[in-house]
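Handoff note, outgoing to incoming analyst
You'll be picking up this chain. Sequence as last confirmed:
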Amino acid sequence: MWVERGVFGLLAIKQGASLLELCCGDGFNAYHFYSTRAKTIISVDFDKDAIPHAKKYNQANNVEFRLCDIRTEMPEGIFDNVVWDAAIEHFTEKEIDEIMKNIKARLRNEGILTGYTIVELPTGQKSLSHHEREFRSKEDLKSFFEPYFKNVKVFETIYPSRHNLYFYASNGILPFDKEWEHITIK
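Most recent structure output, in case you need it:
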């Protein structure tokens, strides 16, 4: 379970891609997964303790860690991939909409947005107190991407202690699409 986030994100990254990672936390996935394939990575988080940790323990030559709040300081540039992993649930619906507009403006036309979140508990109680918006189902999460992307795929993994939702969104081919089988990822 602990590696699937990095593996599922890596499936969407082509060799030599430019990547923007939102809410990178300690930088583990940037270092252990994405840096093996992407040419350049900008990994950002607003946690003033996370970025120094990431730079100390998970630095790679092709990764630049930056302190910034994606609600107000989304990095400029055009990217092949945007990764928003384990963080969409930390924002309100209004913030998600604004962030989605900024992601769309920075993603190449056929670029892919990937990420992960958890399903809200059956009781409706938040898994963590600082979560703003947890998602009830695959369809609930998918509805946040459909206004921005032609192709959206949401799938789940279920464990006794956790129900995960993974997403791919793009105007191009997505991992596991029939056409994707013919793409060689080196």
